[in-house]
């Protein structure tokens, strides 16, 4: 009997559940951790990279770039950064949709898209995939770190069902329960970006599956406000910059320190 409710996303079980959505959420709970913290003067995102093969060509990642070069953190618009947990192929599709939606808004209204509106547009698309027969939901959750002049810095989370919510600090992916507990203990409403960076890195070091923390296994981004232009400034860190941050926070182990010096 259970298979009858598994095969299509549109069929509710007798308990009123959509099993395909629950399966998608379960897949995300095993994905690499993505963590976001909202500060008074910016938003900090960090993500665990799962693809760390020795033969992987990381030339582009080492060169870096404004648009990011990893698999977990993407620049959606000049005022919005997205962190994704789940199926990377699904994430790429949604990232392209989000970028197009942001550019259409810019063309129509000559202003950057508000963060919540961008989250809504993606959630509308996600929700449609839970409603039409024969389509599986997107197997990805997204954290949106953004800025707009009306509500300033914001942090949103959306899941495969099309639900979204605003957060001060949150985590998606593996070990998210442990990360949430740590964030509840240490987060303060008046936290600044420099302190949020330390909080994020310390939390990631305790929740990631890896025993060591390095730029090979971590992506990092900060959205802040340019002091001169008063416009949002997105910075997706390069590997060397991530290692420098980890060293500043004292989170690189001695073996890693020796490798950096050599």
From TrEMBL:
SMART domains: Proteasome_A_N (SM00948). It comes from the Eukaryota. Its main location: cytoplasm. Pfam families: Proteasome, Proteasome_A_N. One of its GO terms (cellular component) is nucleus. InterPro entries: Ntn_hydrolases_N, Proteasome_alpha, Proteasome_alpha-type, Proteasome_asu_N, Proteasome_sua/b. One of its GO terms (biological process) is ubiquitin-dependent protein catabolic process. Residues 5-27 form the Proteasome alpha-type subunits domain. Keywords: Cytoplasm, Nucleus, Proteasome. The keyword Cell membrane does not apply. It is found in: Cytoplasm; Nucleus. Belongs to the peptidase T1A family. PANTHER family: PROTEASOME SUBUNIT ALPHA/BETA (PTHR11599). The proteasome is a multicatalytic proteinase complex which is characterized by its ability to cleave peptides with Arg, Phe, Tyr, Leu, and Glu adjacent to the leaving group at neutral or slightly basic pH. The proteasome has an ATP-dependent proteolytic activity. The 26S proteasome consists of a 20S proteasome core and two 19S regulatory subunits. This is Proteasome subunit alpha type. It comes from Agaricus bisporus var. burnettii.
């Amino acid at each position: 009997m259970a298979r009858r409710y598994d095969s299509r996303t549109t069929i509710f079980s007798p308990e009123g559940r959509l099993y395909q959505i629950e399966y998608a959420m379960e897949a995300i709970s095993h994905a690499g951790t993505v963590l976001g913290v909202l500060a008074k003067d910016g938003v900090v995102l960090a993500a665990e990279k799962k693809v760390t093969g020795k033969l992987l060509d990381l030339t582009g990642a080492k060169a870096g770039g404004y648009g990011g070069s990893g698999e977990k953190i993407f620049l959606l618009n000049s005022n919005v950064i997205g962190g994704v947990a789940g199926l990377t192929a699904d994430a790429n599709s949604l990232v392209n949709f989000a970028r197009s939606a942001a550019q259409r808004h810019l063309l129509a209204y000559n202003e950057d898209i508000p963060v919540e509106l961008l989250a809504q547009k993606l959630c509308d698309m996600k929700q449609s995939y839970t409603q039409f027969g024969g389509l599986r939901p997107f197997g990805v959750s997204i954290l949106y770190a953004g800025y707009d002049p009306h509500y300033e810095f914001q942090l949103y989370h959306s899941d495969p069902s099309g639900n979204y919510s605003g957060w001060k600090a949150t985590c998606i992916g593996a070990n998210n329960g442990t990360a949430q507990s740590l964030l509840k203990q240490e987060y303060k409403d008046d936290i600044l970006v420099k302190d949020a960076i330390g909080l994020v890195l310390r939390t990631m070091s305790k929740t990631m599956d890896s025993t060591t923390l390095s730029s090979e296994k971590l992506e990092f981004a900060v959205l802040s406000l340019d002091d001169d232009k008063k416009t949002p400034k997105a910075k997706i860190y390069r590997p060397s910059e991530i290692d420098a941050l980890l060293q500043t926070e004292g989170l690189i182990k001695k073996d890693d320190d020796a490798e950096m010096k050599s």
